[in-house]
Structures are given as C-alpha cells and as structure tokens.
Amino acid sequence: MVKPFMPQLVYYEPNAITYKLGEELLDKFNDLGVEIRKTTSHNQVRNIPGEGHLQQYRNAKSTLVIGVRKTLKFDSSKPSAEYALPLATGCMGHCHYCYLQTTMGSKPYIRTYVNVEEILDQAHQYMVERSPEETRFEASCTSDIVGIDHLTHTLKRTIEYFGQSDLGKLRFVTKFSHVDHLLTANHNGKTRFRFSINADYVIKNFEPGTSPLSDRIDAAKKVVDAGYPLGFIVAPIYLHEGWKEGYRNLFINLDEQLPKTQRGDITFEMIQHRFTKPAKRVIEKNYPKSKLKMEEEDRRYKWGRYGIGKYIYQKDEEAELKDTLESYVDQFFPEAKIEYFT
Ligand code: SF4
Questions:
Q1: Please, are residues 144 and 174 in contact by the beta-carbon 8 Å criterion?
Q2: In this structure, which residue's CA is closest to atom 8 in ligand 1?
Q3: 93 in ligand 1 pocket by Cβ < 6 Å?
Q4: Fewer CB atoms inside 10 A, N or C side of the chain?
Q5: Residue pair 169/137 in contact by the 8 Å Cβ criterion
C-alpha cells in the first residue's frame, strides 16, 4: 500500500490566496504542519532544496506549488480526447519512462491550479464551439491527477461539473488507488475512469512510488461499483523475458477480480513502449540505475512531430505484441472494446 501523497514543502503564488481553494489549501497545510513558503516566481525549480541534481529532483517530486493557471488555451489530446484539461502539472510517482520527464523537464515539482472555475468556464467555451458535437477532455496529460486529488478535490469538482454537462465528457488515467472521495461524486456516467496497468515485472521494476497492481484493481472495483464507465490503459507494453506469461497473468488477475456483470462498457487502450533520444537522456540522468532497455539499434524509427522521432518495436515484434494482447482481451473480456493499439 502506497500512502496517499503528502508534500514535504508547499509553495504558494501570491494570487492563489485570492481564490477560495487557495485559501482552503493554505489552512489545510498549516493545520497539517507542512512547511509553507511564499514565492513570487512562476518557476520554482531554483528554490527547491537539495544538493545535486538527483536530490533536487527527488525533493521536487514531494513539493507542491499552489498556483493559478494563466493560459486558458487548452492543448489537443489525440487520440483519446479533443482537449487536455489543465488541472495540475507534475507527479509524485517515479516511473522511469514517465512522459512528464521530458514534457515538464525543468519543472518536476507538482503544481495545482486553484482557479478551477475559470478553467471549467473555458472548457464550456470549447464545448459551445463544437456543439452539437460532443467534446472529450483528458485530465491526465500533465499529471496523475487522481494521485493529488485527495488533497485538492479539484478532480471531484470537475467530475461533477461534467456530470451536469450535455456535450462534455471527461476522462483520465491513474496509477494510484486513492479513489474513495471520488466514489460519491455525481458523475452521471460522463466520466471514464481509467487505470494504467501492466505486467508484474514492469510495475515492479519501473514504477516506484505508485500503487501496486492489486491496489489499482481494488480501486477499479470500487469505481465500477460507483457506476463509472471503466477503462484500462495497458502501457507501456514492454518486451521482457516471459512477457507473454506476464501479460496473460495480468488478464487472469483482472478477470478474477472484476465483477462479471459490469463488463459491457469496459475499454482497453494499448500503447507499446517507445522512447525519443531526448527522453532517453533524461531517463538516464534521473534514474541512472534503471534496467529499462532503450537501444536505438533494436528498434524501429518513426518520424514524429517537431522532427523528434520515436523508437518503437520492430514490425514483427509490434505485430506479435498487438496480436497477443488483443487475444487476451478477446479471451477474458469479450464484451470490452479495444479503443486503439499504438
Ligand atoms: Fe508519470 Fe504517471 Fe508515473 Fe506519475 S504515475 S510518474 S504521471 S507515469
């Protein structure tokens, strides 16, 4: 059992206190006796204590910044949604292959936004623009939002907001099991609650600081009981010795644990392991002892946006991964929908 996240140090930006949530969070961390510092700088990294890169990186991941989201232009979030919903950035987890290491490289601390109502108003604008089409929002593009929400309840507010919306859908994914406060949210079936899952070997070796698989599955059971549409993202699908058995065991485990009666609406998304050259450099710097295999010559190069290509598995390996994983879904969850394999 991984304990729910509690920051060691909290920074707050001056404007944050003018929002109700900012005030509530300050009171909360004061009561909890967490060290609180004021900051005027948007970029906190130079203030994070610690000697040397690794210590500072670790400390940053237990530092929470209470801030205000100024840019209210949302990024796109293909293939799973039209827009990324910015509620927070950063994560306390230590997954070696975490995408945030490159996207948020210079800001590894966690930053939560207190101007939630302004963010939701902006989401409303996007929905109006696309009307009468539905608009999907992905809330986990820049953080593992569930992992911090027991402190802020920002996600809970957002779930309830979309619960009242006609044309908006919300989705997010998590590797954390601290979902209890979300079970009572009035979601009205508009939120797809997804868990990131993987073979034992992958979770044990590459996902320190996140909830173990058994806890994620327990949380998924609670979520489905609370009536949420449920999904799983199997990612990154990683070739390792005994991978076929490892992933098969994962599906056996899921099949044994999840109620048989509520499976019609489960979705699966599948993402094979990939890396870019810049990501490899960052991973080697942040997790120098990692066993993660990233040999360019073993992989196939795929051109990407902004000229930064990624290294994915060779064609035959990719086909075998896809066929194998899809056959497990067909075998154990024939009613479920595979949204994509990429
Ligand atoms: Fe990154 Fe997700 Fe792991 Fe957090 S839980 S470190 S966001 S991969």
A1: yes
A2: 98
A3: yes
A4: N
A5: yes
Does the pLDDT at position 304 exceed 70?
yes
- Mutating to test ligand 1, I would choose from 100, 101, 155, 287 the residue with most ligand atoms within 8 A of its C-beta, which is 100
Q: What is the pLDDT of residues 108-167, one digit of tens each?
A: 899 999 999 999 999 999 999 999 999 999 999 999 999 999 999 999 999 999 999 999
Q: Mean pLDDT over all residues of the chain?
A: 95
Residues 6 or more apart whose Cβ sits within 8 Å of residue 172: 138, 139, 140, 145, 146, 155, 191, 193, 194
- Ligand 1 centre distance from Cα of residue 166 (Å): 31
The rounded Å distance from CA 100 to ligand 1 centre is 7
pLDDT tens-digit series, residues 189-209: 999 999 999 999 999 999 999
Give the CATH number of domain 9-231+238-256: 3.80.30.30
Q: What is the pLDDT of residues 54-75, one digit of tens each?
A: 999 999 999 999 999 999 999 9
Verify whether ligand 1 is closer than 6 Å to residue 85 (CB atom): no
Give the helix/strand (H/E) hosting 310: strand 310-312
Nearest one of 75, 267, 270, 85 to 169, comparing CA atoms: 85
Asked whether the whole model's pTM tops 0.70, one would answer yes
Q: What is the DSSP string of 250-284?
A: HHHHHHHHS-GGG-TT-EEEEEE--EEHHHHHHHH
- Cα(234) to centroid of ligand 1, in Å? 14
pLDDT at 43 over 70: no
Domain boundaries, the chain: 9-231+238-256
